[in-house]
Amino acid sequence: MQEVMPSGLTAIELFADMPPAQVQALEERCVWRRYDRNELILDRDSESRDVFFVAEGQVQVKNYSYSGREIALATIRTGGYFGELSAIDNERRSATVLAAEECLLAAMTPGVFGDLLATQPAVALMVLRRLARIIRVCDERILDLSTLGAVQRVYVELLRLAGPDAAVPSLRSIYPMPTQAEVAGRASTTRETVARVIGQLSQAAIVERKGKTLYIKKPDDLETLAERLRPDETESASR
Known about the structure:
Order of helices and strands: EHEEEEEEHEEHHHEEHHEEHH
Mean pLDDT: 89
Number of strands: 13
Number of helices: 9
C-alpha cells in the first residue's frame, strides 16, 4: 500500500451529478492510497469504518465459509465504492476486500460520509438504491442455494454474467471471463465443478471460449439445462 496524492473523484458514479467544486472539497477530505494486486484492503474483522471509492482499477469482495471455502460476493470496478454498511451502522465489516489489480482508492471517514448523505438527497437516494440491489442479489443467492444443485448454480451464474457482445450485440458473451475459481466462489461450489461444467458445455457447442471471452452460442439451451436439472441430479453430476 502506498499513500499518494489525490487524482480526483470524477470517475465515481455516486458524485456524477454534484457540482465540481463540491466534489473537489470531498477529494480534500479523503485519504488516497494505491494498492498492489492481491493486496488486502479490508479484513472482515477490521475496525475501520471508512467508505472506499475506486478511482482506478478494481477490487474483489469475498467471504469465507466455516470450512474455509472462498465465496466471491462482488467485483467493484472503477467508479464504484464499498464499505458503506459499516459507515452507516457502525458494525464490523461483513466481508474481506482485496485488490484484483493495481488500484487507487479514496477512503472517506464515516463522519464525512454521513454529512454527505444528510446534505445531498440525490446521493443518499443512490446509496439506498444500491443497498436495495444488494438485498435483491442476496435474496436470489439464498434461493439458489436452497433450491439448486452445484451444476445448476454454475449454469445460472453463467447466464447472469452474460450480456450482449460488444462486437455483435445479437450474441451473448462474458468478457472478461472470470477465472474458474471466481465463478466457483459466486456459485458456491468448487473450481473442479466449474471446469467440468464449462468443458461439457463446450463439447456440446453451447459455449465457446476465445481468449478472455466466453461466448454463449446457445443461450436457450443453457437456460433449458438450468431449468431442467433437479437438485439431486445436479449434486450427483458434481461428484
